[in-house]
Specification:
homodimer; alpha/beta; 8 helices; 41% helix
């Protein structure tokens, strides 16, 4: 990169960090847990949110901000579950930025418990952008291969928890979830790991409990 | 994006285009077909190259440039097939650029037929960077979902052919290859489509024939 490019990127990230800090302060003051979901395209982010919508219905209130380069599809899937959703289409940009979240935040109802943000499907660029969330989940599906954490380290380093998705496909794949988990935890020792199938329900109790615990800690000021 | 950011990005792309044109001219003068492979992480780019190495052995000579953010893993897999491979680790950058290829090009043997370039696993950013290739393949695996072309249009618009991978997993997936192909061809009508399993061999004859035909057209000046 040229010096000029490096300066512009550094300025962008500094501006983003300020916007993210303001969002985090606002969400905490409202008692809302912000959760940012990162992964490659097709790792199961939207399907996980659909499953959480079903699981939390009547107990916790959620809202979802969807990030995609094009189409309103993911927001439509979430709305079909009776959950409020906003679609941000980046029109080419490879990640969400905090200012994009800031523009939507005023419309998000005050009485929700969880604000999920589904990032653009990309295991690289979104890792560098804080969106003001309190929990960052990185998803890795079995079909992607257990060699991915070391190849895309920043996403795993920046996350609080790794969610290994599509466990129902494991019988048909050369994927070792223990290897994937060990490789990710070699990058970040404190990373929590969950193995789930959003379609079959496997592991969803543990993941939901983790999110509820994080919400309770935020509200009791232990975040 | 700020005006400053837009200017820097435009300058980067213009510089890249010049470098790519020089690479394309050199590859054509040597009679080598450059092939750039784009996809999400884990769509099967390296596995496809391993299968092509086996299939072309003794008939066509190949070399591979591997792009990854970190690790030498993919180049090691290719070398294990007896094929010359160079690993470019971008150290964080989300795509390969032509100047990175240019640095390696002097080391690539003159007598090869195909130079495959495996881009960083990312369905977004690599689409904007011409690497001097004559054929661009975009891979989409069944587990990623048949709704991806419209969500990541640039990758499909910029490609010459769509390779639907991991067809051996189709019995276990809610994936309709015809839907994926139709959606991609709605973005680019001239896009060729291949459905393959690099592991089982399904569709590999057709894809190999397409590549050999492109090589022959390049050498006869019909590229």
């Amino acid at each position: 990169m040229t010096t000029k490019t490096i300066t512009v990127v550094r300025d962008l990230l500094a501006t983003n960090k300020q916007a993210a800090a303001a969002i985090r302060a606002e969400l905490r003051s409202r008692g809302i847990l912000g959760v940012n979901l990162l992964s490659s395209p097709g790792s199961g982010k939207t399907t996980l949110l659909e499953a959480l919508a079903d699981r939390f219905r009547g107990r916790y209130r959620l809202a979802v901000i969807e990030g995609d380069i094009e189409t309103e599809r993911d927001a439509e899937r979430i709305r079909a579950k009776g959950v409020a959703a906003w679609q941000i289409t980046t029109g080419g940009a490879c990640h969400l930025e905090a200012r994009m979240i800031g523009k939507v935040l005023g419309d998000v109802p005050a009485e929700i418990d969880f604000l999920f943000i589904e990032n653009v499907g990309n295991l690289v660029c979104p890792a560098s952008y804080d969106l003001g969330e309190d929990v960052r989940l990185v998803l890795l599906s079995g079909p992607e291969g257990d060699d991915k954490p070391a190849k895309y380290p920043q996403a795993f380093l920046s996350a609080d928890a790794l969610v290994l998705t599509k466990s129902d496909l494991l019988p048909y794949l050369p994927f070792d979830p223990r290897k994937a988990a060990a490789e990710a935890q070699a990058i970040k020792g404190t990373l929590k790991v969950f193995k789930i199938s959003a379609l079959c329900g496997d592991g969803m109790d543990e993941l939901a409990a983790y999110l509820v615990d994080a919400l309770e800690r935020l509200r009791s000021g232990r975040a």
